[in-house]
């Protein structure tokens, strides 16, 4: 789990996910609380001996912030509100498994599902890399 080429990386075994925020879905819309804040996210996945990439308007700015806070809390050993992290669009999903030793990653609307070990420093690097990307795409206030 680390930053690669500006992306935020999670990996375990022969599987990995690199998230890259590509931009706002609707950069010209700034006054709508929903449409102003959807982000295009690229998921680069290696799983089951295959590699693929997919770009989707799969997260809002607030959901990106939730991933950062959730993963940072786990890295820091702090309590989290819920072991599952899901979003309006099911493009991505994360779950801290009951033993607390692995995170289940769901990417590409469930096309890839794999577990990554919880490693505090690697998870902190993932969280920091995603936070740096989100700084370029802040939440835009809506009406």
Quick synopsis:
The chain is of the alpha+beta class. It has one domain: Transcriptional Co-activator pc4, Chain A (Roll).
Written overview of the protein:
The structure is a single chain. The chain has 143 residues and is an alpha+beta fold. It has one domain (3-135): Transcriptional Co-activator pc4, Chain A (Roll), CATH 2.30.31. The chain contains 2 helices and 9 strands. Helix 1 packs antiparallel against helix 2. It starts with a strand and ends in an 8-residue tail after the last helix.
Features:
five-stranded antiparallel beta sheet; 143 residues; single chain; Transcriptional Co-activator pc4, Chain A; 22% helix; alpha+beta; four-stranded antiparallel beta sheet; 2 helices; 41% strand
Write the topology of this structure:
Layout: E1 3-4, E2 7-12, E3 15-24, E4 38-47, E5 50-60, H1 61-76, E6 84-85, E7 92-96, E8 102-107, E9 112-117, H2 120-135
Antiparallel strand pairs: 1-2, 2-3, 3-4, 4-5, 6-7, 7-8, 8-9
Helix pairs in contact: 1-2
Strand content: 35-45%
Count of individual domains:
1
The assembly state of the depicted protein chains is single chain
Helix content: 10-25%
**Uncertain stretches of 5 or more adjacent residues:** none
CATH-defined topology: Transcriptional Co-activator pc4, Chain A
Q: How confident overall, as mean pLDDT?
A: 92
Q: What class, by secondary structure content? A: alpha+beta
Distance between the termini: 37 Å
């Amino acid at each position: 789990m680390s930053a690669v080429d500006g992306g935020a990386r999670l990996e375990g075994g022969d599987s990995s996910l690199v998230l890259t925020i590509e931009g706002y879905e609707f950069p010209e819309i700034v006054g709508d609380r929903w449409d102003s804040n959807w982000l295009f996210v690229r998921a680069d996945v290696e799983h089951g001996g295959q590699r693929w990439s997919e770009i989707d308007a799969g997260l809002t700015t607030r959901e990106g912030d939730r991933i950062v806070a959730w993963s940072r809390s786990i890295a820091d050993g702090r309590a989290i509100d819920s072991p599952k992290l899901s979003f309006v669009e099911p493009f991505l999903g994360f779950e801290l498994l009951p033993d607390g030793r692995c995170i289940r990653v769901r990417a590409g609307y469930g096309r890839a599902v794999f577990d990554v070990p919880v490693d505090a420093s690697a998870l902190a690097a993932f969280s920091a890399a995603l936070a740096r990307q989100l700084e370029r795409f802040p939440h835009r206030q809506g009406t």
